[in-house]
Amino acid sequence: MITKIVLMVNKRKEMQEIFKHINNVFWKIEDVADENDRRAYKKILLRGRYTLHVWSALFVVWLCCICRTKSLPLKCYRPTWIPLYSIIALQDLTFILLSWTIIGIDGIITSFFLMTAIQLKMLNREIEAMFDTNDEDVIARKVITLIEHHDFMLRL
């Protein structure tokens, strides 16, 4: 949990460069010629996003329900002059803010994996459709493009 937060803060510049590179190199779903394939790719992406949203909302609700106890969620020193409920509220707020950070980072990672899966499906579809034409120059250009994209996906 803390490792994810530290990684995103310390490696912020590298992560931004990776995301910019991915944005430039990844094939766009809108560029897919076949309407059925385009809808299938969008459905995969939306299903992943909805799943992440549902699990995140359930986690935050569960966290709020757990934090409504009359005792401290974490064991800590409690001076007698500080009311118990103010410390409970502080710890609850801390847990909720930390969970939002974790959920955000998990959302980025999940989106990355979903986009990679869609890229591999698009690559597979292009390989299957490569020999639809008889023109050798077009096939040679497609092979070069597919090899470059496959090499990028392997390096990723």
Describe this structure in words.
This protein has 156 residues and is mostly helical. Helices cover 77% and strands 0% of the residues. It is elongated and about 85 Å long. The two termini are 23 Å apart.
**Which term fits the overall shape?**
elongated
Q: Give the low-pLDDT segments.
A: none
Radius of gyration (Å):
23 Å
Average pLDDT, rounded to a whole number, is: 79
Structural class: mainly alpha
Please summarize the sheet with the most strands: none
Summarize this entry quickly.
By secondary structure, the chain is an all-alpha fold. The protein is built from five helices and no strands. The protein is 77% helix and 0% strand.
Main attributes?
mainly alpha, 0% strand, elongated
List the helices and strands and how they pair.
Elements: H1 2-10, H2 12-25, H3 35-66, H4 84-128, H5 136-155
